[in-house]
From TrEMBL, chain A:
<feature type="transmembrane region" description="Helical">
    <location>
        <begin position="65"/>
        <end position="96"/>
    </location>
</feature>
<keyword id="KW-0812">Transmembrane</keyword>
<dbReference type="GO" id="GO:0005886">
    <property type="term" value="C:plasma membrane"/>
</dbReference>
<feature type="transmembrane region" description="Helical">
    <location>
        <begin position="257"/>
        <end position="277"/>
    </location>
</feature>
<dbReference type="GO" id="GO:0022857">
    <property type="term" value="F:transmembrane transporter activity"/>
</dbReference>
<keyword id="KW-1003">Cell membrane</keyword>
<feature type="transmembrane region" description="Helical">
    <location>
        <begin position="29"/>
        <end position="45"/>
    </location>
</feature>
<dbReference type="Pfam" id="PF02653">
    <property type="entry name" value="BPD_transp_2"/>
</dbReference>
<feature type="transmembrane region" description="Helical">
    <location>
        <begin position="108"/>
        <end position="129"/>
    </location>
</feature>
UniProtKB/TrEMBL annotation, chain B:
<keyword id="KW-0762">Sugar transport</keyword>
<dbReference type="InterPro" id="IPR003593">
    <property type="entry name" value="AAA+_ATPase"/>
</dbReference>
<dbReference type="GO" id="GO:0005524">
    <property type="term" value="F:ATP binding"/>
</dbReference>
<dbReference type="Pfam" id="PF00005">
    <property type="entry name" value="ABC_tran"/>
</dbReference>
<keyword id="KW-0813">Transport</keyword>
<keyword id="KW-0677">Repeat</keyword>
<keyword id="KW-0547">Nucleotide-binding</keyword>
<keyword id="KW-0472">Membrane</keyword>
<dbReference type="InterPro" id="IPR003439">
    <property type="entry name" value="ABC_transporter-like_ATP-bd"/>
</dbReference>
Length: 330, 257
């Protein structure tokens, strides 16, 4: 129903709204261009970069981060954040490792990993929802607890020599394509359906836009928050399963960078740290950007320290642009 | 008389600690009537409305809806009984579309393999109908609410109330921060609601608006109802006199506006 407007004031706002959409889609386009530039740079410096083998390696290295990022996108759209995901991945991985050491079959081990992740995520959600502590502080606290648990269980020694029965999930092939692609596709498809096609997703976005308004229309805010953090935890548990499947060991420093990489990828992908906005597709491109940068810099012989500089710098640029945009519209 | 009342409140008392915010207040609303609720800051308007909306529980007094005693325990409870309060903040999610906002918390779903998926087509169709009924003009049902004007947002909030078939619609200062043309539009919405047989409670500081759309005016002062006036038979000066206290009337004859 394209009807005429009543006042000039609303006319001006409409022009703004017409512009608003291309900006949102623009983030993915922008990322695509950035990815193109990145690929061009690395490909010109290393002929190995675009080889099938290297691209497969990048994909395999991306799977666990990508899975975590699907959950992180939902939590950030909700207006939350979880800096403890690395800890959740670590605790889940340790439990998976220990379960394997007790000769438990995959049928038992995998549910243990997933359930541990979901439970820890739900715990984060419950603390945040019930105590009203800012999520970044609450999850900072739980992260230290999770890391302590990791050391208590693992005792500073790697768990290694784990079975390869699940390795096909990351390292295998299906229809001539790397199997990780299908894992990522399934998780993002599922997340997208939940976020954009169900009432649950509407609740998540509404809480991210305005929690008070969400309460006023009768949305059970606390319950939705716990569910969203539990979903992120579940995905972190799955990431742990995939991590163990890929590397077949559990290192003491497992999960150290996951939280920051996940938040960076999500924000790069267009999610607004204040909630309400986010794009699963953008996040996926953010993951690819981070993992390509890591891979490419190693290939062209640049110190991997620069990787963090590039990602950190880009993140600041994006956040500043977001802040400017917010100031302009409000 | 009683059988025509849509809603009534009798002897409502609400205390906050030692402060008596509402002191045996009576209030009534007929079917298809626009009742203005006016009073100075702190007169008890908000407390009365929050009690009516289910956000506060009265300490004493009876509330009747269609003659039956009711007690709302939450705003959702009130909404489900057809009493929709549109608070000043409107409770809209800025980064969601008009249709998504109208159905927020009450989405139409279609079950696929037991999973409830949004039926966006049905929601869009119904949203268009509601906005048309109310004569709200928006560029596109997919526009984010944060890009709408204040009047359009009021329209969306009212459409949400109509969607649940509310027949009592309470509007808290709907024209407060609006440009002149937008105020006109919101007043038109209220007249449209009356034509549809809805009962409207309009809380406003603006005596001019009150005189334009209301049938009757309830005046609160210091937690008491000190006036129930027929809009046709009173004047802005008299209403202002009630609001400020009769003694002050002579010194401030035209404080309206």
């Amino acid at each position: 129903m394209w009807t005429t407007l009543t006042s000039e004031a609303s006319d001006a706002r409409n022009r703004a709204s017409v512009i608003s959409r291309p900006i949102r889609i623009g983030r993915e386009v922008l990322l695509l261009i950035a990815l193109g530039v990145l690929v061009a740079i690395f490909a010109s410096q290393s002929e190995f970069f675009l080889s099938e083998r290297n691209l497969t390696t990048i994909l395999r290295n991306s799977v666990d981060l990508a899975v975590v990022c699907a959950g992180m996108t939902i939590v950030i759209i909700l207006g939350g954040i979880d800096v403890s995901v690395g800890g959740i991945v670590a605790v889940s991985a340790v439990l998976i490792g220990r379960a394997y050491q007790y000769d438990m079959p995959d049928m038992v081990v995998v549910p243990i990993g997933l359930a541990a992740g979901a439970a820890l995520g739900a715990m984060n959600g419950a603390i945040i929802a019930k105590s009203r502590v800012p999520p970044i502080v609450a999850t900072l606290g739980t992260m230290y607890i999770f890391i302590a648990v990791l050391f208590l269980v693992i005792g500073g020694v790697w768990i290694s020599g784990l079975p390869n029965t699940l390795s096909f999930l990351v390292l295998g092939e299906l229809f001539g394509l790397p199997s990780g692609l299908f894992v990522i596709g399934a998780i993002y498809g599922l997340s997208w359906l939940m976020l954009r096609r169900t009432p649950w997703g509407q609740r998540v976005v509404a809480i991210g836009c305005d929690e008070h308004a969400a309460r006023l229309v009768g949305i059970r805010v606390d319950r939705t928050k716990i569910q969203a953090y539990a979903l992120l935890g579940l995905f972190a548990g799955l990431a742990a399963v995939l991590y163990v499947a890929r590397l077949r060991n559990v290192e003491v420093n497992i999960g150290t960078n996951i939280a920051l990489e996940a938040i960076a990828a999500t924000i790069l992908g267009g999610a607004n740290i204040r909630g309400g906005i986010g794009s699963l597709l953008g996040t996926l491109m953010g993951v690819l950007f981070i993992k390509m940068t890591q891979n490419g810099l190693v290939l062209i012989g640049v110190s991997s320290l620069w990787e963090t500089v590039v990602i950190g710098g880009l993140l600041i640029v994006v956040l500043v642009l977001d802040a400017l945009e917010t100031r302009r519209t409000s | 008389m009683t059988e025509t009342l849509k809603l009534s409140m009798e002897g409502i008392v609400k205390r906050f600690g030692g402060v008596v915010a509402l002191d045996h207040v009576d209030f009534e609303l007929r079917r298809g009537e626009v009742m203005a609720l006016v009073g100075d800051n702190g007169a008890g308007k908000s407390t009365l409305i929050k009690t009516l909306a289910g956000a506060h529980m009265a300490d004493e007094g009876v509330m009747r809806l269609d003659g039956e005693p009711v007690r709302f325990t939450s705003p959702q409870d009130a909404w489900s009984r057809g009493v929709a309060t549109i608070f000043q903040e409107l409770a809209l999610a800025g980064k969601m579309t008009i249709a998504d906002n109208i159905f927020l918390g009450r989405e139409i779903t279609r079950s696929v393999a037991g999973i409830p998926f949004l039926d966006r087509r049905a929601m869009h169709r119904r949203s268009r109908e509601l906005l048309e009924e109310l004569d709200v003009h928006v560029p596109d049902i997919h526009t984010w609410v944060e890009y709408l004007s204040g009047g359009q947002r009021q329209g969306v909030a009212i459409a949400r109330a109509l969607n649940i078939d509310a027949d009592v619609i309470v509007m808290d200062e709907p024209t407060a921060a609006l440009a002149v043309a937008e105020v006109r539009k919101v007043l038109e919405f209220i007249k449209t609601l009356r034509r549809q047989g809805k009962s409207v409670i309009l809380i406003s500081h603006n005596v001019q608006d009150v005189f334009e759309v209301s049938d009757r005016i309830t005046v609160l002062r210091r937690g008491q109802r000190i006036g129930l006036l027929e809009t046709q038979k009173t004047t802005p000066e008299e209403v202002v006199g009630y609001i400020t206290g009769a003694a002050e009337t002579k010194r401030r004859p035209v404080a309206a506006g």
